[in-house]
Amino acid sequence: MSEATNGTTTVSSEVVEKITVAAARAVPGVADLGGDVARFFNSVLDKVGLDEVGDASRGVSAKISNNNVTVSVVLVLEAGRVVAEVTGEVQRKVTEALTGYGLNVVAVNVNVDDITGV
Fold first, then answer.
1. pLDDT per position as a tens digit, 21-76
2. Other C-beta atoms within 10 Å of 105: how many?
3. Distance CA 51, CA 40 (A)
4. 24: helix, coil or strand?
5. 39 CB contacts (<8 Å, ≥6 apart)?
6. Are the C-beta atoms of 31 and 77 separated by less than 8 Å?
7. How far apart are CA 118 and CA 61, in angstroms?
8. Contact (CB, 8 A) for 79 and 117
9. Angle of helix 83-99 relative to helix 13-25, nearest 10 degrees?
């Protein structure tokens, strides 16, 4: 029996964003994801019982061209953490996670929006 070699496979930006969120949240020193506005709206959703709405890709955007992926991550650091250490680990973990799915990571851009406890 021969295997099919024709056709394409696409991965949606939502899938890439979910993988990125999971990888970034696993890094020690990351307190939260998303900018001030996103965190505000998520806190309102949490209070009305919609705590899962918006969490899947909060603070992350992805651009995909063929198998090439560029992601941007907005995060909040825990107070007392070295910015370069945490952001470097986020970049490493996100790249590792996405390449594990067969994607070519062009860039992982990290924006530190806030620090908790300050």
1. 999 999 999 998 886 444 444 444 455 554 444 444 578 999 999 889 999 999 99
2. 19
3. 12
4. helix
5. 32, 76
6. yes
7. 27
8. yes
9. 130
Position of tokens 């696409």? 10
Q: What are phi and psi of 51, to 5 degrees?
A: -65, -20
Which amino acid appears at position 100 of this protein?
G
Whole-prediction pTM: 0.78
Residue with the two structure tokens 């991550």: 73
9: its two tokens: 């496979």
Length of the chain in residues, anyone? 118
pLDDT classification of 81: cutoffs 50, 70, 90: very high
The position carrying tokens 């949240």 is 25
